[in-house]
Backbone:
Protein backbone atom coordinates (compact mmCIF):
# COMPACT_ATOMS: atom_id res chain seq x y z
CA UNK A 1 0.00 0.00 0.00
CA UNK A 2 2.73 2.47 0.95
CA UNK A 3 4.69 1.77 -2.24
CA UNK A 4 1.58 2.35 -4.37
CA UNK A 5 0.80 5.60 -2.53
CA UNK A 6 4.38 6.77 -3.02
CA UNK A 7 4.16 6.07 -6.76
CA UNK A 8 0.87 8.00 -7.01
CA UNK A 9 2.32 10.84 -4.93
CA UNK A 10 5.35 11.08 -7.23
CA UNK A 11 3.07 11.17 -10.28
CA UNK A 12 0.78 13.83 -8.77
CA UNK A 13 3.57 15.96 -7.28
CA UNK A 14 4.66 17.54 -10.61
CA UNK A 15 1.07 18.54 -11.44
CA UNK A 16 0.38 19.94 -7.97
CA UNK A 17 3.72 21.76 -7.94
CA UNK A 18 2.98 23.34 -11.35
CA UNK A 19 -0.43 24.56 -10.16
CA UNK A 20 1.00 25.86 -6.89
CA UNK A 21 3.94 27.55 -8.65
CA UNK A 22 1.62 29.19 -11.19
CA UNK A 23 -0.70 30.30 -8.39
CA UNK A 24 2.20 31.66 -6.33
CA UNK A 25 3.72 33.45 -9.33
CA UNK A 26 0.34 34.92 -10.29
CA UNK A 27 -0.37 36.01 -6.71
CA UNK A 28 3.13 37.46 -6.37
CA UNK A 29 2.84 39.34 -9.66
CA UNK A 30 -0.57 40.75 -8.68
CA UNK A 31 0.69 41.65 -5.18
CA UNK A 32 3.72 43.45 -6.56
Residues:
Amino acid sequence: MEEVKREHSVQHLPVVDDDEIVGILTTTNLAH
